[in-house]
Amino acid sequence: MTNHIYINESPPIHSNYMRTTPTNDQRNPETNQEQQNTNNNTNKTTEEQQGTTIANTTATTQPTQDPSAQPWGHTLQQKEEHTIRLLLQNIGGIDLTTMGSIKLVALRTFTQAMQVDICTITECNTDWNKAPQHLYPTEQTRYWWESCQWKVSHNTHKTNDVPYQPGGTGMMILNHLAHRAQCPGDDKVGLGQWCWAQLRGKIT
After folding, report:
1. CATH code at 102?
2. Mean pLDDT of 114-126
3. How distant, in Å, are the alpha carbons of 89, 93, 186 from that of 127?
4. pLDDT score at 100
5. Which domain holds residue 112?
């Protein structure tokens, strides 16, 4: 018995048979354009909302600046020529330690950076008659500047067993201006309320 296998040959596929079913875009091009515009507007709105959210988050998380940390008056800039710059600072007590005063070191850094000519300080909180001589400001700041004239004051009427004494003032005249300093002094009453110095000018 002979088995016969029949193979049905399909006709060759013509290019016309490769056409696919038309999409909605092809059927209604105007509708497709409207839909695309709608999508673009939606994406734009989403981006704007994201940008607003980021901006609000940034504004909320941005740290607030402490008003007390802001400078009074103009921010210090580089000193102009033929200018004398004065600094007044409540130092809150000069720390008398064998390793040296940290506050005087900070004062040195600031005066050098800001080109200070005259530095005045209040609240030294020291009876200099009781303090060790090697801890005097004149000794601690030796060779820190080209030249420096110091004057400190304290209450000489009140005796203390320790170097600490509330109040007192101090003044430094620095660098080239120190060569013009003459006759430093303090209040005649001896309460250590102020100190002063005369500066020699070109004529006097």
Report:
1. 3.60.10.10
2. 94
3. 19, 11, 14
4. 87
5. 82-199
